[in-house]
Amino acid sequence: MTLQVGLGQREGRYLLEPEALALVKAAGLPVIEHRTARSAEEAVSAAGQLGYPVALKVVSREIVHKSDADGVQLDVRDAAAVSAAYRRVMDGAARHHAGARMDGVLVCRMARPGVEVILGLTRDPQFGPALMFGLGGIFVELYRDVAFRLVPISERDATEMIREIKGFPLLLATRGRQARDLATVVRCLLTLSRLAESRAEIDALDLNPVILYDEGCVVVDAKVFLAGGDGRS
Prior knowledge:
The protein is of the alpha+beta class and 233 residues long. The chain folds into two domains: 13-29 and 113-226, D-amino Acid Aminotransferase, Chain A, domain 1 (2-Layer Sandwich), CATH 3.30.470.20; 34-109, Dna Ligase, domain 1 (2-Layer Sandwich), CATH 3.30.1490.20. It is 31% helix and 27% strand. The chain has six helices and eleven strands. The chain has helices spanning 17-27, 40-50, 79-96, 139-143, 155-164, 182-198; strands at 13-14, 34-37, 54-58, 72-76, 105-109, 115-124, 128-135, 146-150, 202-212, 217-219, 222-226. Strands 1, 6, 7, 8, 9, 10 and 11 form a seven-stranded antiparallel β-sheet that branches. The radius of gyration is 18 Å and the shape is globular. The mean pLDDT is 91.
C-alpha cells in the first residue's frame, strides 16, 4: 500500500488555520494558544494577552504553505517587534501571492521545545481513510520516516505505529532526558481515527509539528482539506 506523506500539492477546499485548529481542538486534541489579528494593533494586543514570545502566520485561503510565501515570523519578543513582524508577514505574502485575499495573521504563543512529530489523516481512493505518524518538522520531507494504518485503529495499532518509525529511539529516555509521553500520542491517534469516521468531509489533515513532551503534547500547526470545492470559498 502506497499512501502520500503530508498534504503535498493536494487540491480542494481547505480550512483557514484558525478553523483547522478549532476543528482539532473540538475533537479533543490540545492546540497552541492563539488569536487572529487583522491589523498590527490587534496583533500587538493579542501578543500581550498570550504572553511573549509569539509567532505570527499569515491567514489566507490562497496560501497553504506559509513559510514558502515568507508568511511566518517566529520568536517575536516585544510589541514593537510584533508590529514590524505583522507588516513583514503581510508584505511577504503579498509579494508571493499577488492579489490573494489576506484574512490577517494568526498570533500564537511559542511552544516550549520538545520532540516534533507529525500526525496525519488521508483518504486514499482505494483503501479509504488512513492515519499517519512520524517525526515532524523538516524531518518529514527529509526522511519520510512515517507509519500508516487504515481506520479504524485500536490502541495496539497506535502503539505499533509509534514503534515502527526509525526515529522511535528519539522518543525514549536517554542520557538523562525523560521519555516522551507516548500514551498521549496513542490517545491522539485514536482521536483522529474517530474523527476520520465521524467527519467524512475531511479529505486530508496534517498536524505538523505536534510538540511532544515528557508530559502531554501541543498541536502547533494544522492543515485540513475538505472533499470537493476549489479552495477559495
